[in-house]
Write a structure and sequence with these properties.
Elements lengths: L2 H10 L1 H12 L11 H15 L2 E5 L7 E6 L7 E7 L20 E2 L2 E3 L3 H21 L6 E7 L9 H7 L8 E4 L3 E2 L5 E4 L1 E2 L1 E10 L5 E2 L9 H10 L22 H8 L5 H8 L12 H8 L2 E9 L9 E2 L2 E10 L5 H14 L6 E8 L2 E2 L5 H14 L4 E3 L9 H6 L4 E3 L3 E2 L10 E3 H20 L1
Parallel strand pairs: 3-6, 3-7, 7-19, 8-20, 9-18
Antiparallel strand pairs: 1-2, 2-6, 4-5, 5-21, 8-9, 10-17, 11-15, 11-16, 12-14, 13-15
Length: 452
Amino acid sequence: MHLQEIYEYVDAHSQEFIGDLVRLVKQPSVSAKGEGMQECAKMVEKMMREVGLSTRIIPEKEGNPVVYGEIKSETSKKTLLFYNHYDVQPPEPLEEWICDPFSGEIRNGKIYGRGVSDNKGNIVSRLKVVQAFLETMGSVPVNIKFVIEGEEEIGSPHLPPVIQKHKNLFSADAAIWEFGGTNRKGRPDVYLGLKGVLSVELRAKGANRDVHSANAPLIPNPAWRLAWALNTLKNDKDEILIDGFYDNVDTPSAEEIECLKTIRYEEEEEKKELGLKEYIHDVSGLDVPKALLYQPTCTINGFLTGYTDKGSKTVLPNKAMAKLDFRLVRRQMPNEIFSKLVRHLKNRGFGDIEVISHGSTEPVKTPITDKFVQTVIKTAEKVYGKEAAVYPTSAGSGPMHLFRNWLGYPVVSVGCGHAESRAHAPNENITAEGFIKGTKFIATLLHEFSVS
């Protein structure tokens, strides 16, 4: 096989590929709001068929559909599965975008739009690899499967029963996960796992309606009630105070510590980009990736109560709500953390606070010694010409455990993003150059996997 033919095809059709990505970005698909989900699922299936995949849409009970596609190789029995998601985060705050978040606008070599990095860029990149092989070689080097779901950004609550029902359909020898890219120095990032996550909502209630704030000496204020409850979860040393929270926390092995040393985290560049003088506790050096990847967290994502518009309003609100997420490390199970959270609040006199779970995933890892991991690392270094930064796990989360732990094959995450892609934030973007380079990387990986 001559990969140069593939590379030349990708270069010759790069504008077409970028145009298809822009088309997908223009289709809103905000799972948190239920905006455009069915339309986007149909568009993704159409794009799959256009490149030569056989497809089907698998409905999720009470959820958004999973789009499945596959194509058989004429030369190999190996199967590589690609996991992606077509849903995106809400685009707010809208006023901070330099363009419409669903425009796919291209400026100075960057493609902007909600979901362009997370995760539509990688969807299109990987689909176009299939097209490139079929157009130049007539066949793909290995069997390929795509699983593209529509609820990753809300915790994939309905994906487990789909996986259970279709285990044979989702069987593979290995999988490539949905995200990744390069760091500021152009080194490829390779991720071997994910933290778990538990997303919750806390609700406090007071009177049956808002009242004048002059009544504050008499009427309970749910905003204060919720603030006091939140104050019991964490201290000023950033330690989580939930009883038993750290019981099962896993620490990095000696092998993983050596892996962390390859990362050489770009702390000064990141702090400058974010306008920070220092990280929490002024961590630096090896302690930065160690904290990022092996420290569980409790984060307030949002707090809503009372009047928040311009000017003042002397009101005592009748309800307050906060959204939180807990990022969990290996051996911390979300259902156990949820039970501990509920028990913690009750034991500290906040049993009246309603606790609602909005989804969870388990922590997961693939060993660095796995043969497929080594193939991915070597291929990344070959294509990008630089040493890979290998992360034993990621600070992010997703339903990787359904494939790694349930179905039993190695899973590695790589992609076509970059260090300032701004996923989940205003002005999310990828570079056109990185998109095309990432497409060539996936093409090379398919070949290397077929002969490994």
